[in-house]
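We both want to read discrete structure tokens more fluently, so let's practise on a single case. Would you write everything just below, so we can both look at the same thing?
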Amino acid sequence: MSTVALLINHKIIITLNISSSVISDPSATLYSAYARLTLLQSLIIELGLMPPTADLPSSLKAAKRFLKSKAFLNVGDYLWAREQGPKELQNIMYPSKSALKKDLRNKKSRDRRANRCWVKEHGLDVLLITIF
């Protein structure tokens, strides 16, 4: 059991470093499906959306579908929380898509929104939702 936990912790460190490098240099995600899948898998781990013993989605389509159904967060808040640490990432998650939409419609949250073009360019477009 301790070997599995060590492997999981090691995997989390590796994937967090991958997502950080991809977010800082998005050109890697533009041409490689494997790099894009790795980014989405690292987001799943970083956000704590999957139990440690479960297998990560093995295809790009499955990873997108999983994130669209489980990851409800403001991208601007996500970028801020990444700098604060892993515990803060859990605090910015919304329980449902409707709760996220309600918050995004609020005038106070407009200054926390990330630029849509920047989000798409950096491979985080799977986190975007339509609010109206």
